[in-house]
């Protein structure tokens, strides 16, 4: 039988004159977490009584088990109550008075320079209860142990190192924590503010949480259930719970592992299309159903932050700071496991439903491509199911596509050339020219593609990837046999000089005369591939091109075999200049390079020549 509670006064067993200013100073930026900590403690106490009942160590009536939060705006108090195991007076002395903290001076010295210390003191130093003093000028504990013969006890502390314990009238087991809110924390004397915090941190706590006469949480979210218990409607309903305004996801992965670490969760694949903006703060990290953070980039690789959903692991410290996560071995294992599970899921869908996977790929291609270029382990697996699509809308794996074009698009150096377009409308003339030669053209038009092309080119053996308008086709895919020019060397030089003289005021041009089929344009304008890639990658990264504001470099290839070239050579001087400008503008038009006024002038010229 528990001895009667003896009234007494004493001092908290800590190694500093006053720990509370330290707590306030270092935790102030996260002061709302006091409610998370106290409610979590109440939930723990409640779960313990359930376990003791399961073990046969508590034979009384469990009754209704929930945690209640009460706000008294007039008295300026917040009370957190549970019907858990409670405490005896001796346990108060053990767990409350002897703060799980030593070497306060060393602690302050060690952490005073670290900004994110504020976010990880409590969990690391056993100070969860003492977070109450971030917002309270005085804290009361009224508690009664579940043990037979126990009587109630009240503990009071005003934020100094002094406390008092005295007997208390309490009929039921459990604990009430009463916070007398300080003047500088009266923002928490608001139903709206408390509801906001409870819904943020306690939305899925495993014990019912009651506030303002309402249960504010779902104690059994789908990630704590076995996948065999769940239907598609359950996963979709939970997604709507997380993202009420979101479009339905494409599919999902249910994570469930208990070795070598504990991890549960559900990750959803949203429809990404061509949008990176959807990626932020869409995976929530929990520990034992307590919300920790939605900044998970240290828990999962960056490309996985494009997914939505929930990850729950007790092996991640309750108070997560980025620097701690980077050094934690469990976090690295968890990251690797999630990456592997995501890759395996995609490979499974690809193998079992190729047609369905192809239909989804426009929506998930951004994710897969980002993963390939940013995570080597994912990239190795993803080569099996990452798809490329040609201008006819047909999909291929890397291996399939190389086999498809190898015969016709292998150059004289035995390198397979993948041709691609980034804008089907602007590059249509070039696509048509390639198609006439029997060449196939891929579509790479997403925001990630400039980086993706660079990332995969060196990974695919003996393959070059070139934009279809980056050069003339004979230079894009150089063959042993070349077309012959119908012009003499003198006429080629004459044509080149005419263009250089006539276009002298144009941007920086490199002019050449090349033999091409007669059904090609009389002039073909291209931008060197390396410059185009640098510009494209700079644009997708929101940065300036390394070439700054320099005039655009253009390659101008005159088609030696086109009738217009012969016509230019045979015309008088004035008409030569007009024909040169006309042919040059036609080439610019095919590249989508004519501005509004230039386009209008070109059309007027063309009409006048009809």
What is the CA-atom radius of gyration, in angstroms? 35 Å
Number of separate domains: 4
Report the structural category: alpha+beta
CATH topology of the largest domain: Heat Shock Protein 90
| Percentage of residues in helical conformation | 25-40%
Query: Could you name the ranges where pLDDT drops below 50 across 5 or more consecutive residues?
Result: 100-111, 114-125, 319-324, 545-551
The end-to-end distance, rounded to whole angstroms, is 112 Å
Strand content: 15-25%
The biggest beta sheet is recorded as: 9 strands, mixed
CATH-defined architecture of the largest domain = 2-Layer Sandwich
DSSP, total strands: 22
What is the assigned CATH homologous superfamily of the largest domain? Histidine kinase-like ATPase, C-terminal domain
Give the overall average pLDDT.
82
| Spatial strand sequence of the major β-sheet | 1-6-5-4-7-3-2-8-9
- Number of distinct helices: 20
Envelope shape: elongated
């Amino acid at each position: 039988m528990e001895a009667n509670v003896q009234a007494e006064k004493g001092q908290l067993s800590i190694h500093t004159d006053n720990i509370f200013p330290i707590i306030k100073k270092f935790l102030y930026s996260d002061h709302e977490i006091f409610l998370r900590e106290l409610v979590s403690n109440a939930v723990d106490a409640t779960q313990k009584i359930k376990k003791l009942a399961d073990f046969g160590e508590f034979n009384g009536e469990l009754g209704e088990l929930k945690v209640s939060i009460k706000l008294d705006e007039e008295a300026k108090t917040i009370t957190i109550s549970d019907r858990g195991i409670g405490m005896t007076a001796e346990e108060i002395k053990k767990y409350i008075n002897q703060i799980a903290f030593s070497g306060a001076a060393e602690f302050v010295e060690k952490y005073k320079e670290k900004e994110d210390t504020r976010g990880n003191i409590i969990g690391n130093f056993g100070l969860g209860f003492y977070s109450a003093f971030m917002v309270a000028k005085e804290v009361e504990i009224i508690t009664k142990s579940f043990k037979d013969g126990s009587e109630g006890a009240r503990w009071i502390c005003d934020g100094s190192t002094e406390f008092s314990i005295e007997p208390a009238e309490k009929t039921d087991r459990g604990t009430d924590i009463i916070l007398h809110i300080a003047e500088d924390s009266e923002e928490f004397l608001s139903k709206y503010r408390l509801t906001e915090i409870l819904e943020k941190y306690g939305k899925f706590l495993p014990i019912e949480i009651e506030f303002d006469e309402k249960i504010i949480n779902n104690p059994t979210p789908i990630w704590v259930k076995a996948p065999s218990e769940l239907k598609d409607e359950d996963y979709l309903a939970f997604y709507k719970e997380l993202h009420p305004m979101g479009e339905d996801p494409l599919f999902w992965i249910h994570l469930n592992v208990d070795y070598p670490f504990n991890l549960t969760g559900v990750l959803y694949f949203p429809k990404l299309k061509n949008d990176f903006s959807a990626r932020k703060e869409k995976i929530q990290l929990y520990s034992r159903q307590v919300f920790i953070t939605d900044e998970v980039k240290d828990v999962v690789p960056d490309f996985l932050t494009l997914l939505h959903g929930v990850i729950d692991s007790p092996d991640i410290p309750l108070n997560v700071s980025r620097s701690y996560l980077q050094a934690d071995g469990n976090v690295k294992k968890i990251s690797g496991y999630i990456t592997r599970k995501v890759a395996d899921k995609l490979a499974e869908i690809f193998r079992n439903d190729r047609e369905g996977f192809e239909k989804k790929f426009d929506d998930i291609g951004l994710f897969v491509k980002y993963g390939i270029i940013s995570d080597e382990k994912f990239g190795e697996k993803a080569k099996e199911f990452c798809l490329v699509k040609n201008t006819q809308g047909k999909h291929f794996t890397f291996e399939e596509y190389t086999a498809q074009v190898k015969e016709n698009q292998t150059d004289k150096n035995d390198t397979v050339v993948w041709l691609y377009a980034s804008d089907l409308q602007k590059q249509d003339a070039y696509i048509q020219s390639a198609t006439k030669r029997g060449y196939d053209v891929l579509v790479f038009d997403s925001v990630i593609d400039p980086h993706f092309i660079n990332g995969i080119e060196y990974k695919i053996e003996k393959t070059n990837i070139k934009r279809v308008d980056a050069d003339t086709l004979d230079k894009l895919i150089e063959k042993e046999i070349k077309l012959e020019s119908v012009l003499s060397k003198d006429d080629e030089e004459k044509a080149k000089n005419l263009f250089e003289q006539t276009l002298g005021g144009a941007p920086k041009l490199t002019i050449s005369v090349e033999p091409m089929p007669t059904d090609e344009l009389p002039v073909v304008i291209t931008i060197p591939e390396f410059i185009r890639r640098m510009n494209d990658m700079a644009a997708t990264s929101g940065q300036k091109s390394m070439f700054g504001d320099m005039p655009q470099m253009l390659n101008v290839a005159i088609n030696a075999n086109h009738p217009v070239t012969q016509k230019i050579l045979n015309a008088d001087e004035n008409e030569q200049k007009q024909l040169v400008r006309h042919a040059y503008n036609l080439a610019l038009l095919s590249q989508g390079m004519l501005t509004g006024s230039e386009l209008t002038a070109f059309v007027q010229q063309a009409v006048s020549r009809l």
